[in-house]
Amino acid sequence: MTRNAPTSTMVTAAVCLSIAANAIWIAALTPQFLPICQRQGDALEIIAQHTTLWRVDATLFLLSAVGTLVGCALVFATRRGPFGPAGVALLCVATPLWAVALVARLSIEVSVALDRSAQSEMLLELAHS
After folding, report:
1. Is 35:41 a contact under the CB 8 Å cutoff?
2. I want to staple 40 with a disulfide (CB 3.0 to 4.6 A). Which of 2, 35, 58, 103 is the partner?
């Protein structure tokens, strides 16, 4: 029994979207960073204590974005309507831009958390603006 192409594509899309969903939930619910999300405590101090985990979290957020992009592209690229090829093209442009902004901001936050000088604090304010 052979699989037809649309079924195989939908299974691949479902796997990509499942990976993306799991990655975002794991990243968002990392217990060490919940105080940052709840605006409790010094975020830079928490990041300085958990720099490796902070980078893993950033990687999980990126994995979720790429998984969502691939899954949506597989599902909607051949469809017509608002989520058709134009929506996929927009997602293909937005995802790399968001990824670059995320990587830059998160790498600056780790640098500032480890340095804590006045210049690095100004760099962090610039990155958040």
Report:
1. yes
2. 35
